[in-house]
Specification:
It is built from 9 helices and 10 strands. It has helices at about 45-50, 75-80, 100-110, 115-130, 150-160, 180-195, 205-210, 230-235, 240-245; strands at about 5-15, 20-30, 35, 60-65, 65-70, 85-90, 165-170, 200, 215-220, 225-230. The structure holds adenosine-5'-triphosphate and magnesium ion.
Length: about 260
């Protein structure tokens, strides 16, 4: 089997007094779309932050692009890992005081190349990407002039500007209407098919995850308790997975609530 693009091996991660991961392992293959599901507060956002080393782990190995993240200095991590990752944050995280276009080129000009030629090229590419996400013509608008779905699309264009090899999406369709959700889902597939990127998508929407994922992973109690292709995921006998799949209020997932 070929080397995975992301490999988490028996990781432990504590945030404050909370043990978020207690022996979590996961491999993500090059070119795959992997969805991560799990109930609120289980650590989905933290998982994406661990992969980009925005959150450190206390034990275990995190390997991204074949590099053990614990061995990298901060600037090395920026240059060799974070610059190759596009992160679509749960909140969108656009700067409201900048235009849409300036938001999109931000990762490119931030500390990288801000000479005139670099800037012109960055603006051309931003416009191209705004076309890809169907937001052409909004370059000079402020993000807060737009709806939640439009802002998410701008956030996706921004995540793509550095031509990343890996895109991490944190609930890219939550709070959107089903039509806008479907547009974003199609975009996720298009990114992989057109640009060959590997994608990890945190989502609550199992129906959507079934449509676009190669595999679905379920996070529960600090670990990945199941990973399977969509067909087989739905058939897993694990009672936690079953409760999540059926969307039932009563069961092992909610035993401690
Ligand atoms: N900086 C922090 N300090 C202390 N605890 C934190 C910190 N960040 C997150 N946590 C806790 O870690 C756990 C996992 O949080 P995380 O945001 O990863 O969950 P999530 O699965 O993304 O939830 P949601 O579906 O609501 O977005 C939660 O219990 C949260 O309160
Ligand atoms: Mg989250």
């Amino acid at each position: 089997m070929h080397d995975p693009l992301v490999e988490l091996n028996d990781i432990y991660c504590r945030l404050g007094t909370k043990e978020v991961f207690t022996g979590l392992s996961l491999r993500v293959n090059r070119g795959e779309i992997l969805s991560v599901v799990g109930v609120s507060g289980v650590g989905k956002s933290t998982l994406l932050k661990v992969i980009s080393r925005l959150v450190p782990v206390q034990q275990g190995i995190v390997r991204v692009f074949g590099l053990d993240l614990s061995t990298l200095a901060e600037d090395e991590c920026n240059q060799r890992v974070r610059s190759r990752i596009g992160f679509v944050f749960q909140s969108g995280a656009l700067f409201d005081w900048m235009t849409v276009e300036d938001n999109v080129i931000f990762p490119l000009i931030y500390g990288v190349r801000s000479d005139a030629t670099g800037l012109t090229k960055a603006r051309e590419r931003a416009r191209q990407l705004l076309r890809v996400v169907k937001m052409e013509g909004t370059e000079h608008h402020q993000p807060d002039q737009h709806s939640g779905g439009m802002k998410k699309r701008v956030a996706i264009a921004r995540a793509l500007i550095t031509q990343p090899d890996l895109i991490l999406y944190d609930e890219p369709t939550s709070g959107l209407d089903p039509v806008m959700g479907a547009i974003i889902d199609d975009l996720i597939v298009q990114m992989r098919d057109q640009f060959g990127v590997t994608e990890i998508v945190v989502t609550h929407d199992l129906a959507a995850a079934r449509r676009f994922s190669d595999r679905i992973a379920m996070l529960h109690n600090g670990r990945i308790i199941a990973v399977a292709d969509p067909e087989n995921f739905l058939r897993l006998k694990d009672p936690v997975v079953q409760q999540f799949v059926r969307g039932e209020g009563y069961g092992p997932l909610t035993a401690n609530l």
